[in-house]
Give the backbone structure.
Amino acid sequence: MELPVAAVILILTGAGVGFASGLLGIGGSTIMVPVTFFVLTALGIPDQIAIKLAFGTNLLVVFPTALSGMNAHRRKDMVWLRPGVIMGISGAFGAVAGAVFTSKFMPETILRQIFGLVVAIVALRMLVSKPPDIPDAETMPGTELLVLLPLGFITGIISGMLGIGGGIIIVPALTLLLKFDMHHAIGTSLLVMTFMSIAGAISYLISGLSVTGLPPFSIGYVNFAVWACLMTTSVPVAYMGATVAHRLSATCLRYVFIALMAYIAFKMIY
């Protein structure tokens, strides 16, 4: 593959991921990881290095993309800071643990299939569950810390292991377990992802510092040439996606999200 073709593919991918991120509160790495992996291997990078570069680089793309979408949702008062910060901090620790474990030990294929099965189950649960009433996040009972802390940590581990932002788990968790409506779940999910993505990206960067044979513009398992191509479109388009989200009903967003989860589950398993 020629370098200009690779750059165009990554730039277009960034645009699609940015829109999905702002619209649905996801990081988009389930799209970015396979595309980045394909581009890197087509450029002659060995599979074992390419997959970890895809994980680390995409987590670094998620950070500014999620931040852009979150700011757009915050302007509409659709981001609840308290639960988002609590989950984000615990998720950051989980992302570090997951990234370090994967970069050293974990076979990605097994984890990917398990993740796909979990996503399929959660999608089915969202489909049959009743849409929640809107709670008051500022007066959440203290006992819900017992949900937020482990939920953030577990999501962070998965985020670090698979190089994803984690929104595909955070959004249904907030709606099913904490009874957030879809708009607040999407906005708060993007806040959580800013914590987890930067922690996971730094972990991949540090874990790969001693690795030889990395392509140009790489620092550890983060390639800044790939990052720049993806981020060029993902950040501005994420703001557009968030703007569109507020023009859609919560029910419409819910079904779009369920459809996306079903697709991701299928791709992950098969």
Remarks:
- The beta strands are 218-219, 222-223.
- Residues 3-269 form one domain.
- Residues 137-143 have pLDDT under 50 and may be disordered.
- The longest strand covers residues 218-219.
